Amino acid sequence: xxxxxxxxxxxxxxxLLAQLSLHVAPITIRFGADAYLEGETIDEVTFYExxxxxxxxxxxxxxxxxxxxxxxxxxxxxGDPVLSLHITSKLSGTVNSAELAxxxxxxxxxxxxxxxxxxxxxxxxxxxxxxxxxxxxxxxxEILARMRVIRQGMLIFLxxxxxxxxxxxxxxxxxxxxxxxxxxxxxxxxxxxxxxxxQGRVRTRKRALQHLLDLVVEKVGKxxxxxxxxxxxxxDEAASLMQRAEQILTLKQAFIAPLCTSIAANxxxxxxxxxxxxx
Length: 279
Fold this sequence. Notes:
- The protein is an alpha/beta fold.
- The protein is built from 11 helices and 13 strands.
- The protein has helices at about 15-20, 45-55, 65-75, 95-105, 120-135, 140-155, 165-170, 175-185, 205-220, 235-250, 260-265; strands spanning about 5, 20-25, 30, 35, 60, 80-85, 110-115, 155-160, 185-190, 195-200, 225-230, 250-260, 270-279.
- α3 crosses α4, α5 (about 120-135) runs antiparallel to α6 and α9 runs parallel beside α10 (about 235-250).
- The model has no long low-confidence stretch (mean pLDDT about 90).
């Protein structure tokens, strides 16, 4: 049976993630000289406490090729093929590490590397569908074809509570940060062809959250979709946003998931987003 490998930016509800047979390669999170493995040696509470205490945004780095090669060997030891799905190559070097690891084990394990051109719940949905298809008996070729369809239709829109984290991480300049803070602007960020891009700016949090859904409606109308609401320490707002989505969109599968810390580090607590694609 097909074995699935992903990385720790794959956001799914913990209960759902626990049901899947996955091999997860952790992103490394570094606070100065101290390195941690996302989801393994640092949790969300400790992550934010360190940011507050140290007054710094951590650096993140992709899994090393050697680590991924070991994961591939373990996953494929029974002769099973391996599908390795990862965060967009436009924002992380994880896909490159996976390709290097694939070359390292080419005489031992059949590995296919797939660039999700997404992340968070976008990657999570792909992993979830790939697992479901594999359980139903689909082969690698069929699953890859479906992953390409999902990737093509994936929509990801985010809004930030404020720009301090983005400014500290270098995602916006100090001047942009000062102006946006002065005007209390709420930026709307979209993932376009695997890269983050500003889709608009609104003046209030309420309008920003509604605009996230307006963008989805603009793209899909009433067509049936799968949708996730992702959040960084904003569970109540996430629940309200999902309730509104259920009222105005045609949802087949939907869930709320916390945003992984390696992405939240660059966007900050209070970040909310919607991830959707046609079924």
